[in-house]
Design a protein that fits this description.
The structure holds two protein chains of two kinds. By secondary structure, chain A is of the alpha/beta class. Chain A contains twelve helices and seven strands. By secondary structure, chain B is α+β, with helices and mostly antiparallel strands. Chain B is built from 13 helices and 13 strands. Chain B has helices spanning 40-44, 52-57, 64-79, 85-116, 121-150, 170-195, 229-232, 257-264, 270-278, 280-284, 291-316, 363-382, 388-401, and strands at residues 2-4, 15-22, 25-33, 159-160, 163-164, 208-210, 215-216, 219-221, 233-236, 245-248, 330-338, 341-349, 355-361. The two termini of chain B are 37 Å apart. Classes of the chains: A alpha/beta, B alpha+beta. Chains A and B meet through α1, β4, α5, α6 and β6 of A and α1, α4 and α5 of B. Chain B: GO terms for molecular function: ferredoxin hydrogenase activity; nickel cation binding.
Chain lengths: 246, 415
């Protein structure tokens, strides 16, 4: 029997959801463990025995010197590094808070200093080269399962190339943007969540970040303007998960 | 001399501790939250109220729904919105799902490996596969409720001011009624397991909870009367932590499953109440490590209550009507019992519906001082008596008993 691949999960600063979502795979997690051995995953195990990883999953943003050191450690010791979740790929909500780190610390902690060496939150991809980026707040757990299985079988995982609207149509959900006038970022957001928010009858909040390529943010902007949403509201909505300036 | 412990494992988020030793005696313990700051209150300032619960959900994945509901309650209070019994019951059901998911994660995957001497549940499964499976079954059921009410297992957006995006169907509620009854047996077994453990850590001096079982209008404590957090709880910044520390009338206090049971036992469901009575003497000693046992009893409560709620909704029939929300200037506080304790969302909203002030205090921040006190006591007792590996392991277990959620605790603000 071939050796199992060494898998690591590194958590930088985030809500814990991207690491937790791996545990939510349940039986599928045990299927993965046929191919992988977990050697670093501090939410789930007290063991920490790796010095080299075949695959490293990194979640969260770089928000402190500690995060940066951990990220470099992960990059230097892994063959295949996946930026997992929108914090790691785009910065997500915490990177959209405006102002310099010094100013923010002062407003929150009332202190001029920065003894814990905090940094402005930025996505992993701004600091190191990654082999695969899988966004989502949280990402779809079946997607990470597929990606890890592909890697284990020596196949380069496929990147999705369509907006959320495609999955919405496949599910035959009613268009909340056109029919209800709700603010929905589905037309310009990277698909892969199976249109989770539209299933609830609510608008897509753009948690997977903008679809690169041929989307038309200007048109989305015009639609929302026509529905009566003001500039400030629309721009904040665009910026929230991906610091996206259309 | 300072003994630096490595970062805690099998807890949510990133934290560690250091022990200060002088002349062979433990002088101080510092609990350091090293997770970076996330500035959630700043994020919500100037935002339209409608989008805020979805953003606040992102504070924490393990208890996102508690954050959504606390946020919605704060907003509704500010606008003077009153929702129907149906909406209230569905919110409660969602919180119950979260309680099941979170307690099962904590007890079976994070704490049980300590009980049986394994580094994690995956390795524990080779010998105790049944137990791990039972934990995962409870967790999966909790998550399915959370997905039904919240819209997604993690960070759903279905809970809104005035109601929901989508309401559950009759069939979905029937499933909940059926499955919650079937799983009760597993939860009772968890109570037996965790009742057998010896206590450790510190005894809590004060307990604080919300006045209803899973949420409330005010807080209660082991002293008389209900109160708003601003009246008795104070926060301060620490140079060595991104989390602020809270004190109740100047002293460390405890929030979580054990305080809930001790302060609100009369609100429990029949079997949970019986189990509480059976173990009351133990629980009443106030050792924080009995929080594990309290969580196990709450698994029973949650399953029984989920069945009750599903039945009630099925008997009455689901109407699925949202309450209209009228924007006006106002201030409101939402108090929710997140699985690991009291969670506070406090907002002021301007006449245009935008957030003008926001303060969020999470359970781990409320417990921070108590956690330090508990570590200090344990370190004092064990330092010099055992080798460092055992000491470190016991300190980790002490922290784990609080079921800390470190990611949540790092953006505690007074503006």
């Amino acid at each position: 029997m071939m050796d199992k691949l060494k898998l690591a999960v590194f958590e930088l600063t985030d809500c814990g959801g991207c690491a937790l979502n791996i545990l939510f795979l349940y039986e599928k997690l045990f299927d993965l463990l046929e191919f992988y051995e977990i050697t670093e995953f501090h939410m789930a195990t007290s063991l920490s025995e790796g010095s080299h990883y075949d695959v490293a999953l990194v979640t969260g943003t770089v928000s402190s010197q500690r995060d940066l050191a951990l990220l470099k450690e992960a990059r230097n010791h892994s063959d295949y590094l996946i930026a997992l979740g929108t914090c790691a790929t785009h910065g997500s909500v915490q990177a959209s808070v405006e102002g310099s780190i010094r100013e923010k610390l002062k407003r929150v902690y009332g202190d001029e200093g920065n003894p814990m060496r905090a940094l402005d939150s930025k996505p992993v991809v701004e600091y190191v080269a990654v082999d695969f980026a899988l966004p989502g707040c949280p990402y779809d757990k079946n997607e990470v399962y597929q990606v890890l299985m592909d890697i284990a079988k020596g196949i380069e995982p496929v990147k999705k190339d369509y907006p959320v609207c495609v999955e919405c149509k496949l599910n035959e959900y009613e268009c909340v943007l056109v029919k209800k006038g709700l603010p929905c970022l589905g037309p310009i957001t990277y698909g892969g969540c199976n249109a989770a928010c539209i299933r609830s009858g609510l608008g897509c909040i753009g948690c997977r970040g903008p679809l690169p390529g041929e989307v038309n943010p200007a048109s989305e902007y015009e639609i929302l303007k026509d529905l009566g949403y003001d500039d400030d509201y629309i721009l904040r909505k665009f910026k929230t998960f991906a610091r996206w300036e259309p | 001399m300072i003994i630096e412990l490595r970062e805690f494992t099998r807890v949510e988020g990133n934290g560690k501790a250091e022990i200060v030793v002088e002349n062979g005696e433990v002088k101080d313990v510092r609990l350091k939250i090293v997770e970076g700051p996330r500035f959630f209150e700043l994020l919500t300032l100037g935002r339209h109220y409608y989008d805020v619960p979805d953003l606040e959900a992102r504070i924490c994945a393990i208890c996102y729904l508690s954050h959504s509901v606390a946020s919605v309650l704060g907003i509704e209070k500010a606008f003077g919105v009153e929702v129907s019994e149906e909406i209230q019951l569905l919110r409660e059901l969602g919180l119950i799902g979260e309680l099941l998911e979170s307690h099962a994660l904590h007890l079976y995957l994070l704490v049980a490996p300590d009980v049986f001497g394994y580094p994690d549940a995956i390795r524990m499964a080779t010998k105790h596969g049944e137990l791990v499976k039972e934990g995962l079954a409870l967790k999966a059921f909790g998550n399915s409720i959370r997905e039904l009410i919240g819209g997604r297992e993690i960070h759903g957006i279905n809970v809104k001011p005035g109601g929901f995006g989508r309401y559950p169907t009759v069939e979905e509620l029937e499933n909940i009624e059926r499955e919650s009854g079937a799983l009760l047996r597993l939860a009772r077994r968890a109570v037996r397991l965790f009742a057998s453990l010896e206590p450790y850590g510190e005894k809590a001096g004060h307990f604080v909870a919300t006045d209803g079982y899973l949420w409330g209008d005010k807080l209660i404590s082991d002293e008389d009367g209900s109160f708003h957090y601003t009246e008795r709880i104070e926060e301060r910044s620490l140079v060595y932590s991104f989390a602020k520390q809270s004190r109740y009338k100047g002293e460390p206090f405890f929030v979580g499953a054990l305080p809930r049971l001790l302060l609100k036992a009369e609100m429990l469901t029949p079997t949970a109440k019986r189990l509480f009575e059976e173990h009351r003497e133990k629980l009443a000693t106030g050792y924080v490590s009995y929080n594990n046992l309290a969580q196990a009893i709450e698994l029973v409560y949650a399953l029984e209550r989920a069945g009750e709620i599903a039945k009630k909704l099925l008997d009455k029939g689901i109407k699925g009507e949202n309450v209209p929300v009228e924007v006006k200037e106002g201030e409101g506080i939402g108090y929710v019992e997140a699985p690991r304790g009291v969670l506070i969302h406090h907002y002021r909203i301007d006449s245009g519906g935008k957030i003008a002030y926001s303060n969020i205090i999470t359970p781990t921040a409320l417990n921070h001082a108590m956690m330090e006190a508990s570590l200090f006591k344990e370190a004092r007792k064990l330092y010099g008596e055992t080798d460092e590996t055992v000491l470190v392991q016991r300190l980790e277990e002490t922290v784990r008993a609080f079921d800390p959620c470190i990611s949540c605790s790092v953006h505690i603000v007074k503006l």
